[in-house]
Amino acid sequence: MPGYEWRRVRSRDFYALGLGALLSMFTFLGDGYLPPRLAPCPGTSWQDVASFFIVISIGMTFIEGLNWAAWWITCDLRERSNSEGDTETLRGDLVIPGGWIGLAFGLILLIVPYVLHDPSQCEQFYSGKVSVRYFVGALMLSYGALLVGQLFRDVNSRVSSQKLQ
C-alpha cells in the first residue's frame, strides 16, 4: 500500500489554520478593524475568538480524518482488486478537491455562513450544550478553509518547483 502524503496534509493545514485565524479575527473583531457591516459578530471577548478558532481547528482535524479514511478505504479496495502488480499512486485528496473547483467550493462554504447568518458562528461555545447550528457553521468554515488552503499549497508547490528548475 502506498504511503499517505502527510507532508501535503501539513502544508495544507498550515495554510488553512492561517486562514482560520484570519476568519476568527474577521468574525469577532470587525468593529474595531473593519466596518461594522462586515463583522458578523462584533463586540465579543477574546475567549470567544479563541474558542471559535479551537472549534475550527477541531473541524479541520475531523475533515482531514475523513479524507484519510476515504484514502485508506480506496487504497485497500484498489490493492485487493489489483493483485497483478499495477501500482497507482493515490494523491490522498478524495474529500478535498484542488484547483479552481476546490477554490470555488471553498469560497462558497466560507461565504454562506456570513451571508445567511445561519448556521451561526456567532453563538457562544459551551461544552455542555453544543448546538447543531454552531457545529455545522464551524464545519462549513473548516472545510472551506481547507479547500482554499489546498489551493495555496498547490500554488506554493508549483512556484517552488519552478524556482528549482
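[next item in queue]
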Amino acid sequence: MRRARLTRSWFGCDPVATQYAALWSAHFHRCFGPVLNERDVPADFRPLSCGDSCAALYNLHNDPTYPDTPSADFLRDCLPLMLFAGFRPRPERHHMVDTLLRRMDDRYALTVDDDADLALQYVLHDARRRYGAVPDNTPPLIDTMAAILPPDEISKQVISSPTAVKYEGHVWTITTELWIPVPVDAAAHLVNPENWTELGSFFTETTRLDAPKKSTKEGAQAWHGRLHETYTYNWSTLSVQSFHTVLKIDYTVGADKVRTDYSLEYEEDDQLITDDGFMQVNSVDGHPQWTHYLGQKSVRFTSSAMNLLAPAVVCMAMDRDASGFQRNLLKKAKHEQARLERPQAKRPQRKG
C-alpha cells in the first residue's frame, strides 16, 4: 500500500489545526460512523471522537491566547454535522455544547430554564435539512421563502442541497449545490481559481503559471491556462498533509453564468491519479438577486488508505469550500448594504 505523505503538527499550538482536526472527525463520523470505528483507521488519519472534538473546541474557546477561535462560521460547519452523525453529549458536557452554540448563533443558545435536549433537537433539525436526503430531488422554491420571510431576513438565508456522493470507475465524485441571495456578477471573482485562497485555509496557494494575475478592475476576465495549487488537510491533532498540484484551467465568464473547469496535469508527490471538476455560478430565473452555486470534484488517490476515506475527505473539502464561498459573498453584500445606508455627506456649494 502506498502511504500518503504526511507532516506533523502539535495539538493546541495551532488553533487552525485544532479546528480542522475536529472538522475532519465530524465528517468521518458522518460518512463512516455506522461502518468504521476510529480504531479501524490508519493512525495518521485517525479522527477524534465527537465528544473529544467538542471538548477540544470548548477548551480552545476558553483559551485567552486565541480570543477569536473557534469562529462562528467554523462552528456552523462542525457542530450540526456532529449531531447529524449521531453525537449526543452526556449531561455533564451540556455546558460545553451550550457555550459553543452561543458562539455559533444566539438563536441556539440555552438558558437555565431551557430544555437542553429540545435545543439540540432544534440544531439537529437544521442539520438534517442541510445534510440529509432530499426526498423529491428538486431545487428549493425561493418563491415560497419570499412569501413567508421579510426582505431583511431573506438576505441572510442560504439554501443548500445535501452533498451528493458517487463512486464509479474507481473514482469518487462529490457534488455540492447552494442558492445564495446575491447577484451572479458578485460571485464571479470567487469562481476564478486565482482567488480560491479566499475560500478558506485549506487553500494555501493558487498561482497562475502561464501569465501574471489579471486585474479585476474591469470585472471578471476569462482565461485559459495552468495553475499551481497547494491544498492542505489537517487530519488529526498531529497529522497534516499537503497536495501540490498543477491544474489545467478553463475559466469562462458570461452574462448569466461564470464557470471554471479544471483537470489534473500532475501532483508533485504523485499522490493523485485524478483531480478533475468544476465550479459554476449562474443566475436564477425570475430571481436576479439570487445566485445558484454548483461545485463538483472527482478524485482518485494513489494511497489505498486515502481512497478508502475519500468520501469523507472530499465532502469535507467541498463543503468547506462552499461555506467559504457563501461566507465571502454574504459578508461583501452586508458591507455593500451598510455603505448604501450610510448618510451621504453633502458637497459644499461654491459661492458666486
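[queue empty]
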